[in-house]
Amino acid sequence: MQRVAGLCMARLREPESTAQTLQLWIKGPVFYGAKATLNAAETENEVRFRLALHGDPRAALVGQWQDASI
């Protein structure tokens, strides 16, 4: 799951601060080679995201990446 989280984070805009917090909730498996959709909502200080496998409305990974200096 660490690889999946890293791939998600590589595609998101990171918080501007060098002090950051990442919270992840693993909701289900993500199989190697599976097609998935990454959705994100960004504000000035945080990015909330969810990863879902194609054909499954439930999220397999949910995260919140935020500025920890606030």
Number of helices: 1
Strand arrangement in the largest pleated sheet: 1-4-3-2
**Major pleated sheet:** 4 strands, antiparallel
Distance between the termini: 28 Å
What portion of the residues fall into strands of 2 or more residues? 35-45%
The residue ranges in which pLDDT falls below 50 over 5 or more consecutive positions are none
Q: How would the global form be characterised?
A: elongated
Secondary-structure element pattern, one letter each: HEEEE
What is the helical fraction, as a range of percent?
10-25%
Number of strands: 4
Structural class: mainly beta
Mean pLDDT: 91
The Cα radius of gyration reads 12 Å
Task: Describe this protein's structure.
- The structure is a single chain.
- The protein has one helix and four strands.
- Strands 1-4-3-2 form a four-stranded antiparallel β-sheet, with no helix packed on it.
- It is mainly beta and 70 residues long.
- A hairpin with a 7-residue loop joins strand 3 and strand 4.
Ordered list of secondary-structure elements with their pairings:
Elements: H1 2-10, E1 20-26, E2 36-42, E3 46-53, E4 61-67
Antiparallel strand pairs: 1-4, 2-3, 3-4
Task: Provide keyphrases for this structure.
1 helix; 4 strands; mainly beta; 70 residues
Q: What's this model, at a glance?
A:
It is built from one helix and four strands; from the N terminus they run αββββ.
